[in-house]
Amino acid sequence: MAKPTYKELLDAGVHFGHLKKKWNPKMAPYIFMERKGIHVIDLNRTLDNMDRAANAMKQIARSGKKILFVATKKQARNIVKNAAESVNMPYVTDRWLGGMMTNFSTIRRSVKKKQSIEKMLADTTLSSITKKERLTLSRERDKLDKVLGGIENMTRIPAAVFIVDISHEHLAVAEAHRLGVKTFGIVDTNSDPNQIDYAIPGNDDASKSVEIITNYVAEAIREGLEERKATKTEKESAK
User: Fold this and answer.
1) Element containing residue 92 per DSSP (H, E)
2) Which of 10, 75, 109, 152 is the most exposed place for a label (fewest CB within 10 A)?
3) What homologous superfamily does CATH list for 12-97+157-238?
4) Measured between alpha carbons, how far is 12 from 221 in angstroms, rounded to an integer?
5) CB of 103 closer than 8 Å to CB of 179
6) Is the model's pTM score more than 0.90?
């Protein structure tokens, strides 16, 4: 996986933090300077932490475990969804339902309900459903798909979560803590980096910044999956 250069991070605006008055003092080790009342993130620390996080995520993927991608901010949704789908990982990009992980059995029931509705709608021979009922079912299916579509194939609690903006996604962070799930995330200057296991200091508001970091960790996951596949093939050939 090709690590982004210092210049590429700079061009993507990864170094732009929040206004000084909005900062979290625990981010002090990751702040390079203050300019015109705005904190500037130390990109050397960003690169180091991206490496640590990517390597750890690569190992998780290699072990065959799932990493849940979470980003419900408008400017990050599509980026995170595309990255997660590219490596066949679950994602939440509409809104975080309370109990998404801590009350997983209830969430799974909702997913099964969605799948049941889809089967009914797909069955063209079913004449007992009126036009109005079909429309109601379609709306319910769409509503469930919006919230649960990204985790439909997640049959168990993930081994880790990758979060864009840990302050905005504080519910996801709290649930991960309760379950002992590893946490990775992009952390801006207004957040507490000690809230997660692998903090990547960076601008979590600009889409280019989110994209360059998210795509890098997704590439690491892809490598982990490919290594797992290669190892599996070797073992089968040796039999």
Assistant:
1) strand 91-92
2) 109
3) Glucose-6-phosphate isomerase like protein; domain 1 (3.40.50.10490)
4) 22
5) no
6) yes
